[in-house]
Amino acid sequence: MKTVFFDIDTQIDFLYPAGALYVPGAERLLPTLKRLNQYAAGHGIPVVSTTDAHSENDPEFLQWPPHCVAGTAGQQKPADTLLEPRVVIPTTPGDYAPGDAQQVIVEKQALDLFTNPNLPRLIERLSAERYVVYGVVTEYCVRCAVLGLLSTRKRVELVTDAIQSLDAGAARRTLDEFTAAGGKLTTVAALCAE
């Protein structure tokens, strides 16, 4: 079964206490994120990593504090989560082929990764039968990812020990919504035992 990993918004501004929009406890995910991405690389599984790439006066900053401004240190992914070769797909519409990239970084300027107009074509090109999702924040960007991927009618799994939330109640509701829609829950140990 062809699998693609989706690594959602694992960026410095979210993962580290000094980050502009730190998710409390997210730094504890770093070894897990590295393990998942390295596992994918070692097993020929493409990794699609979403990243916020906001402008300095992005409309999203009316709702959230400024974060992940394109070109800043906080917008970057930690080095341990990066794979080679990799390619970046911006939000500018175009025909961006992943080529032989192990990691495809999909930029976005909103919570929902599907706001990048190039994502549907990428998904088509990757032609996966199964998606494995992890990252931050469970009840926001991860929720958008898993529900959007479920709409492709492929198998979608969420790695419960590789996600972090801001609100435990909202995270539980997200997991319930996801499983009710047909999504599956898994763990790092279960995935890496395959």
How would you summarize this macromolecular structure in one to three sentences?
With 194 residues, the chain is α/β, with parallel strands linked by helices. Helices cover 29% and strands 22% of the residues. It has six helices and seven strands; from the N terminus they run E-H-H-E-E-E-H-E-H-E-H-E-H.
Topology:
Blueprint: E1 3-8, H1 12-15, H2 30-42, E2 47-52, E3 86-89, E4 103-108, H3 119-126, E5 130-136, H4 138-150, E6 155-164, H5 168-180, E7 184-186, H6 188-192
Parallel strand pairs: 1-2, 1-5, 2-4, 3-4, 5-6, 6-7
The number of strands is 7
Radius of gyration over C-alpha positions, nearest whole angstrom: 15 Å
CATH top level label: Alpha Beta
Q: How is the CATH topology named?
A: Rossmann fold
The total tally of domains equals 1
Low-confidence stretches: none
Helix content: 25-40%
CATH superfamily: Isochorismatase-like
Shape: globular
The second-level CATH architecture is 3-Layer(aba) Sandwich
Task: Give the neighbour order of strands across the main sheet.
Answer: 3-4-2-1-5-6-7
Beta-strand content bin: 15-25%
Mind summarizing the main beta sheet? 7 strands, parallel
The structure class reads: alpha/beta
What's the number of helices? 6
Please provide the ordered H/E string of secondary-structure elements: EHHEEEHEHEHEH
